[in-house]
Amino acid sequence: MPEIRVTPLGAGQDVGRSCILVSIAGKNVMLDCGMHMGFSDDRRFPDFSYITRSGRLTDFLDCVIISHFHLDHCGALPYFSEMVGYDGPIYMTQPTQAICPILLEDYRKIAVDKKGEANFFTSQMIKDCMKKVVAVHLHQTVQVDDELEIKAYYAGHVLGAAMFQIKVGSESVVYTGDYNMTPDRHLGAAWIDKCRPNLLITESTYATTIRDSKRCRERDFLKKVHETVERGGKVLIPVFALGRAQELCILLETFWERMDLKAPIYFSTGLTEKANHYYKLFIPWTNQKIRKTFVQRNMFEFKHIKAFDRAFADSPGPMVVFATPGMLHAGQSLQIFRKWAGNEKNMVIMPGYCVQGTVGHKILSGQRKLEMEGRQVLEVKMQVEYMSFSAHADAKGIMQLVGQAEPENVLLVHGEAKKMEFLKQKIEQEFRVSCYMPANGETVTLPTSPSIPVGVSLGLLKREMAQGLLPDAKKPRLLHGTLIMKDSNFRLVSSEQALKELGLAEHQLRFTCRVHLHDTRKEQETAVRVYSHLKSVLKDHCVQHLPDGSVTVESILIQAAAHSEDPGTKVLLVSWTYQDEELGSYLTSLLKKGLPQAS
Amino acid sequence: MKLYCLSGHPTLPCNVLKFKSTTVMLDCGLDMTSTLNFLPLPLVQSPRLSNLPGWSLKDGNAFLDKELKECSGHVFVDSVPEFCLPETELIDLSTVDVILISNYHCMMALPYITEHTGFTGTVYATEPTVQIGRLLMEELVNFIERVPKAQSASLWKNKDIQRLLPSPLKDAVEVSTWRRCYTMQEVNSALSKIQLVGYSQKIELFGAVQVTPLSSGYALGSSNWIIQSHYEKVSYVSGSSLLTTHPQPMDQASLKNSDVLILTGLTQIPTANPDGMVGEFCSNLALTVRNGGNVLVPCYPSGVIYDLLECLYQYIDSAGLSSIPFYFISPVANSSLEFSQIFAEWLCHNKQTKVYLPEPPFPHAELIQTNKLKHYPSIHGDFSNDFRQPCVVFTGHPSLRFGDVVHFMELWGKSSLNTVIFTEPDFSYLEALAPYQPLAMKCIYCPIDTRLNFIQVSKLLKEVQPLHVVCPEQYTQPPPAQSHRMDLMIDCQPPAMSYRRAEVLALPFKRRYEKIEIMPELADSLVPMEIKPGVSLATVSAVLHTKDNKHVLQPPPRPAQPTGGKKRKRASDDIPDCKVLKPLLSGSIPVDQFVQTLEKSTHHPPVPFLLEQHGFSDIKVEDTAKGHIVLLQEAETLIQIEEDSTHIICDNDEMLRVRLRDLVLKFLQKF
């Protein structure tokens, strides 16, 4: 029995180090290859030894697909391809291909230079890894090999984020990666056609959240920033260099312009300016509005937002600083946070999800005394605000996508178990499909029953289709033919054609039955009586009286002859071929009952 | 399968393909060479043009002198320029299901088709094709609408009058169908019917046909198309290039195994080498500027201009031209330059890698930044303040009949220091120049046409091996001006089928198979038997379901269980349905074995009324010319057995007949 198997190595009932193995029709595909920001030991990467303990990964995996450039989706890629060893193709969209190595390098620097980790992947490994990448365009059907094909759909979430359809023959799986069903200030909404996959693997970060309108959240955000700046406070917004940062910049830029505010807005690290360049060059991946107006005004050229210098953090007066990384787990955002945390006039706004174990997660869960390196305790007096700007689909959006794709089964990843449970029930109730939520290392097996495509000869098909045009078209039509199987070539042809192709002659099987009738009249008159009798009984059949005196019912021939000995008896010769067996047999038994008396 | 040919222009095709149940229009080219018969539309009042003498017949009759003007021996229509549309009468265009666009030059007739023929289908094109196509249309509409012309000449179109006119007006075809330019509103409406597609995207049309665009290497987003079902494949090649310029390279491999390959859009200048032409372009440009003259380059706002700017970017410093201003004047100049930078995914590999840095893929960004290249929407406004001479001006339209180029021709035509360099191959430069004669400025003809030449075509055809090639008639003979050049035509076996405007071709194509899906439950129930080594057969009796042009075979319904207690209502219920098909039989009956079996008694324990069948003891076998006759004497039954037939002649003893039937069937194969 063919089946689809799915095993999350990461992101099973968890957010972080997304990595999902899919086996479909004998093909093995790895979806995403992320790192976990909550760990800095072995657990930060997926356990690739699960795939194969002894063999080479390249022999086992047909391809790797990366959905977008966030590190929890691609952070383990150089480790996987260069240190564990994988030489097969890695597919991602072009923006992902452009931005991914920069974030990886950023990540590497923090891990090696700041934390002093040994045995980490090197810059060269990032470069070598990226050489294995094949760029995929939206909606392009990429033939990985003769049987396996993949296709990317727009996912919103971040620049270049894509959902992927993995297809072998008539079996398919769709993996959403992270996606967003409502367009935001710089990206469009995710979209997929009614592709009816066997399985939809969807993220479920916001499985239980239905977010209020985006406008309200934006107004809230602007109000908080504005108030803090008015009272002379500093606002820290920890962000990832690409994605949310650009959206919030557009938001602040327009607000500053409208309100004519003077407080400076800074963007940390040179990376960001570069990041905006990427957005300018990948305009087709942004939303409708930006694409339409980019010639007159490129939304990613900011007037009010300037590059940040480390020294600015100590300058007096209000300011707004966007700093990386987004979860306050390392780097510049953490440095600035430590400087500003003690002043209640200041504010930190966390615009996205924070993984457990990060400083971001701690302060969001209410902790106000943080243990830092060297047993130092940092007291957090500044205001801590959480704003969900994170571009994930909410529960409504997830349901909407399930409705769009019409899958036979749904599998949840990239979320918390408790919330998944709720969404799972909702999906099963509303769509009446099975929904799974495996933990890491747990395998879900779905039996499939793919249909078998064969070539049907047009002659045979047209014959059947023509019958379908008859008034009783609603009745199921039986198609009769012969399937010729030669190597892997399957053809369905009419039986006549099959015989002919194989050089076989048809064997004619014919029956002639003698039916004795008591009838004193002449043979011709007997024939007439037979004709009118059959005509009245067989209303739906073609009954004919031929000039030579014989009667036909369809292709069955009935002749009347005199009995050699008994003149009061006539012999009816009923003759038919095996193809008319039922009718022939019926006729003989009907005629055996005798003819009705002529009135 | 039929092909309706609506355009006679080989590089601006418009064909309609009827394939299975779909009607697909391939491209929507607009023949603009018709505008060469019209007087230019000057941006500022031109005394020279307005004072041209009216044309009169040889006998002095001057009734046409308002419509026709004479300039240096050529006659021009003094009216709003008009375009030659594709045929609209050959086929009912409201029946067209989809229009496939291959590149932005081949969609210029789109508004005429989508807005005025009752068309209700979808247009498919890539994003760069649509965006740049929009720019070309916008520019065209702008050029024509900003110089309103009161006069619209129509008298000359009268067939009896046209006959009296001098060439080329006399020979102009289908003048009655020539139309004025569309409006921006029509353009927007037409473009709103386009659905964006990406290379190698498989698009299903009604479940019957699949269409796929492939990179054609000619322009940003330019595509060839595959139109296929599971068993038939038509390739539509239109405007392809194998040269390495800015677009993504041509995808040739996907064209393999075509039943029919429709080949259009080859180079219009098969004798010119594009690389050589670019070299000549640069050196003539430098020469003119060094001598203090101005250079005018009539061009489209997108396409080859990107390559020319890139060449100049590399050339100007070494040629000492750094101080010379380059002007690009078009209502869409800015948009064109900006758009070119955001389509990285549609560019050649070298340019693609630039965006990873991230840098703009085209160096004209740097030319603009360093103020070497300036762009303006028109000669009015800022341009008049910035204008310095000597300079180089890129502007449209290449026909020299409208657009800012008309002004520069009037301005610079009188001085032999200046040069006009023709790079676009769509218009004959001599005809383009005719209404400006006499002219003192130098004219250089450097046509750059990167589309396939005949050598490349013959190589391509050898490689992809289509069963049949279909092409415009122009490609099946050498060009009229070089009739001895037998190498300037398509050479393939079997010879290409050619078409001309308003012709309908029946394509040599026999469909034999269609895809059908066998449901797994049915597949499980099939019993294959091996007939020959490697060849197996299985008889299939199944229910056919057809929905959205997809066919599925499902297991036949189980025979209805005879409902016990109920009495049958009508006798006719008994009558068997003659549509239940019996399998065909094959093989032959081994007579000895047949007789032996008959002689033996058989047991059928499960069948209650046939507990035992007694063997026959009175069987007689007679040989005949073709076989044997087996006689069951007491039962008065006769069985004629021949190589390919068996005939059972018996009394009305159904039990015996069925027994004989089943025995015969046992020896035969069923299909």
Radius of gyration of chain B: 37 Å
Question: Separation of termini of chain B?
Answer: 33 Å
The outline of chain A comes out as: elongated
- What are the segments of chain A in which pLDDT stays under 50 over at least 5 consecutive residues? none
Task: Give the spatial strand order of the biggest sheet of chain B.
Answer: 8-7-6-3-2-1-22
**Count of strand segments of chain A:** 30
Please report the two chains with the greatest interface, counting residues with C-beta closer than 8 angstroms to the partner's C-beta.
A-B, 87 and 93 residues
Helix fraction of chain A, binned, reads 25-40%
- Class derived from helix and strand content of chain A: alpha/beta
What composes the largest sheet of chain A?
7 strands, mixed
Separation, N- and C-terminal Cα atoms of chain A? 66 Å
Question: What's the short story on this structure?
Answer:
Chain A is α/β, with parallel strands linked by helices and 599 residues long. Chain A has 17 helices and 30 strands.
Describe the structure.
The complex is a heterodimer of chains A (599) and B (671). Chain A is α/β, with parallel strands linked by helices. In chain A, strand 17 (369-371) and strand 18 (377-379) form a beta hairpin. In chain A, helix 3 (77-85) crosses helix 5. Chain A is elongated and about 130 Å long. Chain A starts with a strand and ends in a 7-residue tail after the last helix. The mean pLDDT of chain A is 89. Chain B has 671 residues and is α/β, with parallel strands linked by helices. Helices cover 23% and strands 23% of the residues of chain B. Chain B has a 7-stranded mixed β-sheet. In chain B, helix 3 runs antiparallel to helix 5 (184-191). The longest helix of chain B is centred in the N-terminal third of the chain and has 19 residues, at 127-145. Mean pLDDT of chain B is 90; it is low at 564-573. Chains A and B meet through helix 4, helix 8, strand 23, helix 14 and strand 24 of A and helix 8, strand 23, helix 15, strand 25 and strand 26 of B. Strand 24 (477-486) of chain A pairs antiparallel with strand 25 of chain B.
